[in-house]
Amino acid sequence: MKQDEQRMSLSSGRLRKAPENFLDREGIQTVKMQAGQGRRDFIRGAFAAAATGLTASATRSQGNPVPSEGGDPNILNLPEHSRALGQGVVTDGYGKPSKYEANVQRRQSPGLTQTAQASVSFSPLQSLFGIVTPNGLHFERHHQGWWDIDPSRHRFMVNGLVSRPQVFTMDELMRLPSVSRFHFIECGANTAAEWGNVAVPTCQYTHGMLSCSEFTGVPLITLLEIAGADLKKGRFLLAEGGDGSSMTRTIPMSLVRSGEVLVAYGQNGEMLRPENGYPLRLVVPGVQGVSWIKYLRRVELGDQPWAAKDEAIHYLDVMPDGKARQYANLQECKSVVTTPSGGQVLLDKGFYNITGLAWSGRGKVRKVDVSVDGGRNWRTARLETPVLSKALTRFNLDWVWDGKAAIIQSRATDETGYVQPTYPQLRAVRGTRSIYHNNAIQSWLVQDNGEVKNVQLS
Amino acid sequence: MKQDEQRMSLSSGRLRKAPENFLDREGIQTVKMQAGQGRRDFIRGAFAAAATGLTASATRSQGNPVPSEGGDPNILNLPEHSRALGQGVVTDGYGKPSKYEANVQRRQSPGLTQTAQASVSFSPLQSLFGIVTPNGLHFERHHQGWWDIDPSRHRFMVNGLVSRPQVFTMDELMRLPSVSRFHFIECGANTAAEWGNVAVPTCQYTHGMLSCSEFTGVPLITLLEIAGADLKKGRFLLAEGGDGSSMTRTIPMSLVRSGEVLVAYGQNGEMLRPENGYPLRLVVPGVQGVSWIKYLRRVELGDQPWAAKDEAIHYLDVMPDGKARQYANLQECKSVVTTPSGGQVLLDKGFYNITGLAWSGRGKVRKVDVSVDGGRNWRTARLETPVLSKALTRFNLDWVWDGKAAIIQSRATDETGYVQPTYPQLRAVRGTRSIYHNNAIQSWLVQDNGEVKNVQLS
């Protein structure tokens, strides 16, 4: 990883080191002392710093009624934004984040792949809140680059073991009964580098091939019924994407029959983004991202798995005996602490809100335990509601840091009773030769200087 | 409303009139016939249109292995995106919607206010799915314009009936225990023009001062406890914004004690947007938007309501007897059909998914009934889950349009048993002189030519 990339991810952490982005400790004490002197003094003190560099000519030249320098010092010290006209509505018909959030970006891990068209960008999990991933920060995984396909020309076909093969336009799909559901999507290769003891520095790079959205679309089973699918013979679907990678994946009809699998056009309230399959993608809740076919143009109903290119050569788990585990599509229960996490710096001793994400491809998260001593003692975290099936769950836990080195971990349990494994437990079953489906417990070392690092406990 | 504005909102509707944006009926029939001829023929036929204008020199000049014109016609007819390299990852570290969605914008209603700094932009509800409003399309209401405030210089004070007045930096707030919750926010003046029988053409302009997000922040009660609040004497809070409008609002402590009121920094997974109060805003679930103070810099605990400027002069309901109803902050149960809605055009007879939004400031939506005959007969719509308290709820209902004129309405009932009123019912209580708090049933007329118009039934 290049040095500048690393620095950028450090500064995008929420717990920034003073005084680079925030007041230093002396500044905070000054403001607090001023606050103790009463309200008027406080307002002057608290905003004095904010006015620095903002009392310049710009405001006056706009003709606003700003008092002269000999006027009321309380008013003079107010920041410009408290005494002048701001910007008007619809400066952007489609708005953007604050300029102060420019470091909160999805990022490519340099050197991970040879070309940007067959690569990955990672979501900045360390900077996110709640469970929704903003569409602009959704992780990307492309096999032959992304396209912005004209929806008026896009078609979706249903064929195979059906009595009435169908071709749908987008208009036709959007007239059909739709559902909206929150689900996580995780690349099967998320946390892949950790198999080989590579301590990737930040949770953006360890776990950032993970996002969660509200998806809207038509249940695939509805479209199969319209096509007169033979639901007795038809046990597996082939889903095919419209981009040049010819991505095809086998989807078991057992998942489709429940109504969970969607032919989706909406994501977080708006149309899918081009990088994520606009105008149509398959949503396969609980299953690894590669099966969520983007630019979806066809499903074919058949009676056996297809062993497609990306099922026969890639996305296989090499087991300790050298055999390949195939069609292991489900993302098992997993969690990660996002703050404090690698690359962040704790400013000071005292109270912190430990927070992170948990998820399971098998349903709801039942509980998350958190340790601050490398797994000797565990406390149960508070889960934010609603806890949804096959969606991210946000957890929070109070913690008072005593300034000594600490190892922070989270361990999720899902509604089936499955418990997220340690690395030794995972390796005992899966060995060390895998790339995919690493759901082991992540450890973050908080050093006594406040710096947080990725460590792996053997 | 200017003609060009109107046209833009028409074309941003999802049900576009052929052939402007989508295939016409003949085109659809052609594709379907080709599909019936077998799979290879289908692929050629279905994508022939898509290849139009895309087989130009761009691809060949990239040196991709595209067959010559004398080659396999099936391959030749594939669109460029199925045979060439697309764009790489992180084209945008913060991504954007498809270029084909450029008309999906928040819009100012021309002539509504004198200056853009004291104005409104409306969310394009007719183009949205599910319950999440993308931050870029969140409605705006400014009283003196918006600012992008440096979070490292922003301060938040708690004073009044407290034993330890506090000043918090953003860093300090973000270390405290946080919660994440989905809530709607609606301007008290939403649907205001309808009081006076002004049939605003689209649901963007009738109901678009409405959005819903996952908010993350610290419960205000936590900050009051840190400040040693006198929770016996302290019955009302003054909340104060940091922009030039000096917006101050009274918040009853009865709402704060429940833990619902948040001092929020996060919205839909990322930091608040500048137009919506970055870096800090008050979240007051169920209450009209004006009380969700943006650029929040202070709360003061007191023992009586403040009768602040925007409580004594604005945001009052003028009742039939000429008296003003004050402190009517709560947004009562309400709903609106977003498709089909004003400005959209139904392409053809046949099946449609009627969809819309329902909400209540008093808790959860219990049910939504939908009528297609102006209120004579009602059917109960399907509610998307999870149904959350004081959040938007998406409803859907199957409908087969027979091609004749129809009047579509929705009527929501909340968990308290309150039923959304008709206009006659609302006017019987509230008269006709109000601006704020119109929650009457909305009617959309589908004409026999498919055009949908706003009508008001007396």
Shape of chain A: globular
Strand order of the largest sheet of chain A: 5-4-13-8-9
How many helices of chain A does DSSP assign? Answer: 11
CATH first level of the largest domain in chain A: Alpha Beta
Which residue ranges of chain A are poorly predicted, with pLDDT under 50 across at least 5 consecutive positions?
1-25, 34-71
- Proportion of residues in β-strands of chain A: 25-35%
Average pLDDT level of chain A: 85
Rounded Rg of chain A:
26 Å
CATH superfamily of the largest domain in chain A: Oxidoreductase, molybdopterin-binding domain
Description:
2 copies of one chain form a homodimer. By secondary structure, chain A is of the alpha+beta class. The first copy, chain A, has 3 domains: 1-86, no CATH class; 116-325, Sulfite Oxidase, Chain A, domain 2; 334-455, Immunoglobulin-like (Sandwich), CATH 2.60.40. In chain A, 17% of the residues lie in helices and 26% in strands. The first copy, chain A, is built from 11 helices and 24 strands. Chain A has a 5-stranded mixed sheet with strand order 5-4-13-8-9. In chain A, a hairpin with a 6-residue loop joins strand 8 and strand 9. In chain A, helix 2 (25-36) runs antiparallel to helix 3. The longest helix of chain A is centred in the first third of the chain and has 13 residues, at 39-51. Chain A starts with a helix and ends with a strand. The model of chain A is unreliable at 1-25 and 34-71 (pLDDT under 50). At the A-B interface, helix 2, helix 3, strand 1, strand 3 and strand 4 of A face helix 2, helix 3, strand 1, strand 3 and strand 4 of B.
